[in-house]
Design a protein that fits this description.
Structural class: alpha+beta
Shape: elongated
Distance between the termini: 118 Å
Order of helices and strands: HHHHHHHHHHEEEE
Radius of gyration: 30 Å
Strand order of the largest sheet: 1-2-3-4
Largest sheet: 4 strands, antiparallel
Strand content: 15-25%
Number of strands: 4
Number of domains: 2
Number of helices: 10
């Protein structure tokens, strides 16, 4: 009695080609596209000089490639977790994109939804993962995972170290700003401003003489400013290719002038271990009657 061989169920669904090959091609394309996006994002942050977000992107990229490695060697729960999260996040972006009329959010949401669903549910990816598990060397995988975690720990330590350094610089910048506010707006010390002004500020002001007129104008219009509040503001690092790391901050405070409350703004930059003034202005905090009208 002749019995015909039974065709595998997967061949009935996907045809003669072995399904794991499609899963492998999908993962390769996903890796290439993600690598290009990471490189473009990193290059954009380098051009912008945003060193803090560069480190954050490095941590995110390491986490992605670590879990991608586990997906490649056939760890199903990592694949399902990644696919489910990507699909949910993509669906949320689609909703927000429709609500806000954002084509970029719609495109990102559609991409993540399709990739997440295919990664978590496609039979071809499942068969590739099953095939990979047959040849995986767990000792080698543990060594690779340990390297990833070592790099991740180094980047994380760098982020915390940068945050601590930023906190110290932020405190010093506020102290310098408090001194500058008092010397310029209370003591009307023109030489202090000229000594600590950057070349960019001098050029924007139109020269050192025009910068001196700023102090004289503030003395006439705002008077002797006093009762300064504690300076507040934001501070950030900047990166310039290839190895220059700078720092700058926008500091503001409120005080009382001869004709009412005023707001004082100062842009400070770190220069050769010292602070320089790269921008300065003052405005009245709110409208008040002109002295002539009283």
């Amino acid at each position: 009695m002749n019995s015909e061989p039974v065709e595998p169920l997967w061949r009935t669904v996907v045809g003669d080609s072995e399904p794991w090959r499609r899963g492998r091609m999908f993962l390769i394309l996903l890796a290439v596209l993600t690598f290009c996006l990471h490189c473009l994002s990193l290059w954009g942050l380098v051009l912008a000089g945003d060193i803090q977000r560069m480190l954050g992107l490095g941590i995110f990229a390491l986490l992605f490639w670590l879990q991608f490695y586990f997906i490649w060697i056939g760890v199903h729960w990592v694949r399902w977790l990644n696919g489910g999260w990507s699909a949910l996040w993509g669906f949320a972006l689609l909703i927000w994109g429709l609500r806000d009329g954002s084509p970029l959010a719609l495109a990102d949401g559609l991409y993540l939804l399709v990739v997440g669903c295919y990664l978590g549910l496609a039979p071809s990816v499942y068969f590739f993962a099953k095939r990979q598990r047959e040849t995986v060397r767990w000792m080698e995988s543990l060594v690779i995972a340990a390297v990833f975690f070592l790099l991740l720990g180094s980047l994380t330590a760098g982020v915390f170290g940068l945050a601590a350094h930023k906190s110290r610089l932020d405190r010093k910048a506020r102290q310098f700003a408090g001194t500058a506010f008092s010397r310029i707006f209370f003591e009307h010390d023109t030489y202090f401003l000229l000594e600590h002004a950057t070349e960019d500020l001098v050029q924007v002001a139109g020269g050192r003489e025009e910068l001196s007129k700023f102090v004289q104008d503030a003395k006439i219009r705002a008077g002797d400013v006093h009762d300064f509040k504690s300076p507040a503001g934001s501070f950030r690092f900047s990166y310039a290719f290839p190895l220059h790391i700078g720092s700058e901050g926008d500091i503001t405070t409120e005080a009382v002038g001869s004709h009412g409350p005023v707001r004082l703004d100062l842009k400070v930059v770190g220069a050769d271990g010292d602070w320089k003034i790269n921008g300065i202005r003052w405005t009245y905090s709110h409208w008040f009657p002109s002295p002539r009208a009283n």
